Amino acid sequence: NTHASAPVNILKPQKPSLFTRIRNVVFFWRKPIEVQESIPAEPTITVSVTGAPEALATNLRETLQQIQVVEFEDFQSGLPRLRSLATDSAQAVGYYTANFRFRKVNDRHLNVDVVPDTPVKVSTQQILITGEGKTDRAYNRLLKNPDLAVGDIFNHGEYEKTKSRIQTLATER
User: Fold this and answer.
1) Fewer beta carbons below 10 Å: N end or C end of the chain?
2) 3-state secondary structure of 2
3) Containing H/E element for 86?
4) Rounded to whole angstroms, how far apart are CA atoms 37 and 25?
């Protein structure tokens, strides 16, 4: 029994010529481009979520689907990590008291039943700009349109986005 196989081309890092290296350093101030071998990713699990609002369900799926199938084999010993990842994921979108029940459907699939409880909402907001920025139009636009408004469910990503916008304005001005 013989099997034919197609030739496989493996890309290996190539050293640029002396001229290319000198040109990159002297004229363009950049590192030479290196070709790297691609390494296949380890397979990860799939996750279904029930009982959660869409923002929470999406964040849970995206977080938990990063778990590799190999890590998922010993389900019982992996439960503390699952619970920790799920809790962090829920808190990131404002659900600080959510409860989870994990069920291994098969070797590659996890089901998460969620009781989200009441999310944390923004009750007040105070962004204080002092100095010359106090009269700057860009800062005033940011103050009128923050990424989180009073009454919104607290979302760490949106909070960080507002902080980043303020830091960017400070750097630019």
Assistant:
1) N
2) coil
3) helix 75-92
4) 24
Query: Using one digit for the tens of pLDDT, what is the confidence trace for 32-67?
Result: 455 556 666 789 999 999 999 999 999 999 999 999
- Sign of CA pseudo-dihedral 59, 62, 66, 67: positive
Query: Rounded to an integer, what distance in angstroms lies between the CA atom of residue 60 and that of residue 48?
Result: 9
User: What's the Rg (C-alpha) of the chain?
Assistant: 25
Q: Give tens-digit pLDDT for 83-95.
A: 999 999 999 999 9
CA atoms within 13 A on the CB side of 86: 24
- DSSP lists the bridge partners of residue 140 as none
How far is 30 from 136, CA to CA, in rounded Å?
36
Q: Residues 142, 173: contact at Cβ < 8 Å?
A: no
